[in-house]
Design goal:
9% strand; 3-stranded parallel beta sheet; 45% helix; mainly alpha
């Protein structure tokens, strides 16, 4: 399990690159719901929490439910590697520079 938390005021869709390390390596990841990452991930991929009490409750729950924790982590891992991989990001950059034909990107839906 890993916590993707940032200092200060949450900004919509902001995350440090820590998210790549956590999800990309298959850890069950906890994120504040204020990040709005629910736009990309379901509650069966990322564990979103509301406040300190909520995250404590959810950590304890997943500590007791290791099979479910692994399932959620795997779900996020698969989606992250499909939609947020280096090839997708590079394609986006190239399309923004008009070097390749623009295509639809998951995060721009």
């Amino acid at each position: 399990m890993g916590l993707n938390m940032s200092r200060g005021q949450y900004q919509k869709l902001y995350s440090s690159d820590r998210i790549a390390s956590l999800i990309g390596n298959g850890l069950l990841t906890f994120m504040d719901q204020k990040t709005n990452y629910g736009k990309f991930f379901t509650n069966k991929e990322i564990v979103f929490y509301k406040n300190k009490d909520d995250i404590i409750k959810k950590i304890l729950f997943f500590k007791k439910n290791e099979i479910l924790a692994k399932k959620y982590a795997k779900n996020a891992y698969i989606k992250y590697h499909k939609y947020f991989n280096a090839k997708e990001v590079c394609s986006y950059i190239l399309s923004e520079c008009d070097l390749i034909k623009r295509k639809k990107f998951y995060w721009l839906k």
